[in-house]
Structures are given as C-alpha cells and as structure tokens.
C-alpha cells in the first residue's frame, strides 16, 4: 500500500500543476471593489470610542480582565476590533502567511486533502472547511488543484465553507473566490452571512463560528492556517489537577514549567473538530507556529512586520501567541488519532516541494520569476525563517490508521494483510 500511495502522490504532483506561476504577493495586493455584497466595513461617519477608551471603561466598571478577554476585545470587537476593521495581510499589512508567499504551499495542501480523501475511501461528498481564510489564497490554490484533478475526484460533490469574523477580509475572499457571484444573507440571524459560488460552480458559504458550519454526510477536511485566524491566549500559574473546562486543564502532574500559557478557545475548537471527526469522519489539518508543551510566555504583538508592545495602541496591531500542540492533543481526547506536530519544512518536503520546484524551474526561463520562486521556497523551508517556526498537526478518525482485520476461520490468507496508507506530509513519500 505504501507503493500505491507513492504512485498516486507522484501522479498528483505531476498532473496537478500545469498553470503559470502566480505573481508575488506584492504584485497581487489590491483593494476590493466596493460592489461586493458579502460585508462592508463599519461606517466611519459615526466614530465609536477608541479601543483604549473602551477597555479603560470596561476595566473601571468590572475590574481586571484576563489576557484572553483583552485579546478577544482587541482583535474581534465587532466595532473596533483589529480583525474587523483592518486588511492586515501582505507586504503592506502587518504580517504575511505561507499561502501568500507561494502558490506551491496551497497546491501541496490540495494534494494532501485529495490524498486523505482517497485514504478515507473516496466518499461522494467532500466538505472543505477553512478557519481564518485570509485573502482566500489557500482555498483558491486548493480548488485550482481540484479542477485539474477532476479525473481523480470523479463525481465527488465539493463545497467550500469559510469561517471568518473580519468584514474586510471577507470582501477580499469573495472577490478572489467568487468574483461578483456572492451576496449577503437576507436575515441578519442567518448563520450563513454570505453565499456565493466559484467560476466552476462550487458553492461557497461564510460563517462567523465553526459551530454554524452544518454537518453533512461524507468526508470533511477542516483546518486553520496560522497567522490570520483569531487566536486567544490566557496566562495562568501551574495548577495541579485537571478540570473539564479546557481553560482549566492547563497542567499535568509532571509539568515542569512554572508558567503555562493556554488558549481556552483553541481547546474548544479542537474538541469541536474531534467530535465531528468521530461522528462523521474526515480529517483536520492545523498549521501554525507553536511548540509541543515546552515554551512559557510567547504573547506578543505585530505591526508593520515588526514586534509591537501588546498594550500600546490596542486595536492597531495583531496580537498572537504560540500554539501549545501538546495541549491541543490533550483537548482532542482519545477518540481521534493525532499526528505531529512536524515542522513546516518536514511536511512540505515530505509532500514533494523539491520535486515541484524542479518542475517549475525547469519550465521557467524568466530570471525574475526564477528568483521569486527560489526566494519563496527559501522563506517556506529555511529553518531560520518559516521552515521550523511553523508546524503541522492533524486529527484523523482512528479507522484511517487501523490495519485491516485478518479473516478468521478455516480460510487461509495467502497474501499479507495490507497496511493502512501512510498519511501524506507526516510520512516521507518515495518517488520512482
């Protein structure tokens, strides 16, 4: 079965990428047209109180607030939140993510999704869910791979579901994924606040919460790309013993750190993903910078691609913290199989990024484009850059890794029982 996956993965890599190289993020950066229907930024005529004044009033009225609540207000307050008001991605923003650096990243994620879909038995429905879709670049690259591998997907029904709290980013996502083929929901309380379809006719839906994404029969691939989804971190001293609240289960009896940083909301989201995978099948791929339960205080701000004081001018900069993947593994529970974390460099190389680069460079004669390709490859894989700062972590249904049962009774099995297909990205793929 390992050889079978290798052949299939090689076919996907060789057949899936026959399009020209996408221009760099700096070239593609542009404002979204005002005619889009999905969302609109808050009206600037009636300016609400500043975030600083809002927080000051809140603390005076109710007392000190946890770090998690501070982050929640600063990032996602519906009127003055950083994510709500700003288009923060790209060279002209405050930070940039892997899908914006190179289309190769999204292409390899698309191959991973198809590989897992095949490993799950090629169900008839494929529901893609992305948390924090940025400008829609990752989804766009994945869907382009899907369109070029229609013969592999066969008649599978594909739908795209985006969980996004930022009106500014949902505008860009709608433009990049659907053009003018999207519109707002009629009712304000509709969990789907925007609907549209891609040029190929695939349905796209927008939600503000993962809970609002409907459960459908068939395979579900859910994931988040670090760097542009709201993250919340709480700081707490080590407490011995664990509670049922994800925010309280922060330390184990053998914990050696005297300071533990945990995202209670991250634990809840992982529990939601695990529950859906257990009940309906599917897989989750979580991509973010983080650690495996070794770091302490990583709370920081970013503005203009530089570190920024987390308390200075709240609402004007991104706030973030490293993901504790060991904590996420514990929150997922024993009902799902957890793989990773592995570094971004390891995952992309296992997925065949070197093979993909060789093909692109061999077919590219323009010096500036070749320079861009090499630069983006270096940014994604260099250990000193994003290669070892970002990690990949996956949740799978246990049946995905289970060995087939041997037949019982008098019938003798002449052939060895096949091993389960290795999970792409977490296992090195061999190419003939």
What does this structure look like?
- With 432 residues, the chain is of the alpha/beta class.
- The protein has 16 helices and 15 strands.
- The longest helix has 17 residues, at 103-119.
- The chain is globular, with a radius of gyration of 22 Å.
- Residues 1-20, 23-37 and 224-245 have low confidence and may be disordered.
Give a topology summary.
Layout: H1 2-15, H2 25-28, H3 51-62, H4 67-76, H5 82-85, H6 98-101, H7 103-119, E1 125-131, H8 137-148, H9 150-153, E2 157-163, H10 167-178, E3 182-184, E4 194-197, E5 203-207, E6 219-225, E7 234-236, E8 260-262, H11 264-280, E9 283-291, E10 300-303, E11 306-308, E12 318-320, E13 323-324, H12 325-332, E14 337-343, H13 344-350, H14 353-362, H15 367-381, H16 383-387, E15 390-396
Parallel strand pairs: 1-2, 1-6, 2-5, 6-9, 9-13
Antiparallel strand pairs: 3-4, 4-5, 7-8, 9-15, 10-11, 10-12, 14-15
Helix pairs in contact: 7-8, 11-12, 14-15
């Amino acid at each position: 079965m390992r050889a079978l996956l290798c052949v299939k993965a090689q076919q996907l890599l060789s057949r899936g990428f026959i399009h020209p190289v996408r221009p760099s993020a700096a070239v593609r950066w542009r404002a979204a047209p005002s005619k889009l229907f999905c969302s609109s930024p808050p009206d600037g005529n009636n300016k609400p109180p500043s975030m600083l004044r809002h927080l000051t009033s809140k603390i005076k009225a109710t007392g000190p607030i946890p770090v998690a609540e501070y982050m929640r207000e600063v990032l996602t307050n519906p009127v003055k939140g950083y994510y709500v008001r700003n288009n923060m991605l790209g060279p002209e923003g405050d930070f940039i993510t892997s899908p914006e650096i190179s289309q190769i990243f999204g292409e390899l994620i698309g191959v991973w999704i198809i590989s897992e879909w095949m490993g799950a038995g090629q169900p008839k429905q494929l529901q893609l869910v992305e948390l924090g879709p940025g400008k829609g670049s990752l989804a766009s690259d994945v869907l382009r791979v899907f369109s070029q591998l229609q013969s592999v997907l066969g008649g599978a029904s594909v739908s795209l579901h985006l969980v996004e709290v930022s009106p500014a980013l949902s505008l860009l996502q709608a433009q990049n994924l659907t053009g003018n083929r999207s519109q707002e929901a009629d009712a304000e309380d509709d969990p789907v606040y925007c609907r549209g379809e891609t040029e190929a006719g695939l349905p796209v839906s927008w939600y503000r919460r993962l809970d609002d994404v409907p459960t459908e029969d068939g395979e579900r691939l859910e994931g988040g790309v670090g760097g542009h989804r709201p993250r919340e971190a709480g700081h707490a001293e080590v407490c011995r013993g664990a509670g049922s609240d994800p925010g309280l289960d922060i330390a184990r009896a053998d914990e050696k750190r005297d300071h533990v940083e945990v995202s209670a909301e991250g634990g809840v989201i992982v529990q939601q993903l695990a529950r859906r995978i257990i009940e309906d099948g599917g897989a989750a791929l979580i991509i973010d910078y983080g650690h495996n339960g070794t770091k302490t205080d990583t709370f920081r701000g970013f503005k203009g691609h530089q570190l920024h004081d987390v308390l200075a001018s709240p609402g004007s900069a991104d706030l973030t913290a490293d993901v504790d993947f060991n904590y996420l593994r514990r929150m997922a529970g024993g009902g799902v199989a957890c793989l990773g974390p592995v570094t971004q460099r390891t995952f992309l190389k296992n997925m065949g990024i070197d093979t993909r680069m060789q093909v692109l460079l061999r077919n590219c004669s323009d010096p500036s484009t070749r320079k861009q390709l090499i630069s983006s490859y270096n940014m994604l894989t260099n250990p000193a850059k994003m290669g070892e700062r970002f990690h990949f972590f996956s949740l799978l249904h246990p049946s995905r890794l289970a060995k087939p049962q041997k037949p019982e009774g008098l019938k003798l099995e002449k052939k060895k029982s096949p091993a389960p297909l290795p999970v792409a990205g977490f296992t090195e793929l061999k190419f003939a």
